[in-house]
Automatic annotation (TrEMBL):
Ranges of residues in domain RNA-binding S4: 3-62
Lineage: Bacteria, Bacillati, Bacillota, Bacilli, Lactobacillales
UniProt cross-references to NCBIfam families, sorted A to Z: pseudouridine synthase (TIGR00093)
InterPro entries according to UniProt: PsdUridine_s_RsuA/RluB/E/F_cat, PsdUridine_synth_cat_dom_sf, PsdUridine_synth_RsuA/RluA, PsdUridine_synth_RsuA/RluB/E/F, PsdUridine_synth_RsuA/RluB_CS, RsuA_PseudoU_synthase, S4_RNA-bd, S4_RNA-bd_sf
GO cellular component, one term: cytosol
Domain of life: Bacteria
Range of residues in the leader sequence: none
Recorded family membership: Belongs to the pseudouridine synthase RsuA family.
Gene Ontology biological process terms from the UniProt entry: enzyme-directed rRNA pseudouridine synthesis
Keyword Translocase annotated: no
Single annotated GO MF: rRNA pseudouridine synthase activity
Organism of derivation: Lacticaseibacillus pantheris DSM 15945 = JCM 12539 = NBRC 106106
UniProt name for this protein: Pseudouridine synthase
Record keywords: Isomerase, RNA-binding
UniProt cross-references to Pfam families, sorted A to Z: PseudoU_synth_2 (PF00849), S4 (PF01479)
Length: 240
């Protein structure tokens, strides 16, 4: 099957799709020995693609679920040398990167892959993949006080899609906190924290317990596991 040149380069793990486009435009890419600068050029499986004279070898597509611990940045590098999610994948030959992001102080389920197409599908708001979070919040909300979250609260001037919300426990002691489960399918920056802040219950601690059908059952913070073919297929199906 013919594929777009920038996609082939991105899949080989040499560059992101955007960077691949820049390499092509800059004349650094050859197909069967000839420089190609047209974005979207179709290449066939047998074609020899090279970047700066180095032939591509196609990477195997890999899909993992990481139980991201708190205190780790969702990025592939950090200029302050803090721990990043790719540090957990040093034994994996392919260059995997995170699908979406979890905050530095948020733990939980994070997909890591080198399949750019799949990553886009998982992140696009058009595709409704539920993410389930558990938050410890300051204060003890009544069901009524959380109702705006169920109806679609307004954050940064934008009305969000309705969330599923359930109070799991209330601590009426000295600290006055509650544990609340929240399921959303959007993935805006700091969305969960902003949603709770909006209704007056700031998040103290946040964890993502599920990404679609993927849960952290049997895993500890810092563990990762390969997704099964069925899980990958199921996620693609959900996104379609
Ligand atoms: N919402 C947040 O506020 N933080 C996260 O890490 C994920 C969702």
């Amino acid at each position: 099957m013919a594929e777009r040149l920038q996609k082939v380069i991105a899949h080989a793990g040499v560059a992101s799709r955007r960077h691949a486009e820049e390499l092509i435009s800059a004349g650094q890419v050859t197909v069967n020995g000839s420089v190609v600068t047209t974005l979207g050029t179709q290449v066939e499986p047998g074609d020899q693609v090279a970047v700066n004279g180095v032939p591509l070898t196609k990477e195997k597509l890999q899909y993992f679920l990481l139980y991201k611990p708190r205190g780790v940045i969702t990025a592939v590098t950090d200029n302050k040398n803090r721990k990043v999610v790719t540090d957990f994948f040093e034994d994996v030959r392919e260059r995997v990167y995170p699908v979406g992001r979890l905050d530095y102080d948020t733990s939980g389920a994070l997909i890591m892959t080198n399949d750019g197409e799949f990553a886009n599908m998982m992140m696009h708001p058009r595709y409704h993949i539920d993410k389930r979070y558990v938050a410890k919040v300051e204060g003890i909300p009544t069901n009524l006080q959380l109702q705006p979250l169920r109806e679609g609260v307004r954050v940064d001037g934008r009305k969000l899609a309705p969330a599923k919300v359930k109070v799991l426990s209330r601590d009426n002691g000295g600290k006055r906190t509650a544990i609340v489960e929240l399921t959303i399918h959007q993935g805006l920056n700091h969305q969960v924290k902003k949603m709770f802040k909006q209704v007056g219950f700031p998040v103290i601690k946040l964890a993502r317990e599920a990404f679609g059908p993927l849960t952290l059952d049997g895993m500890s913070a810092g563990d990762y596991r390969k997704l099964t073919h069925q899980e990958v297929a199921r996620l693609k199906e959900m996104a379609e």
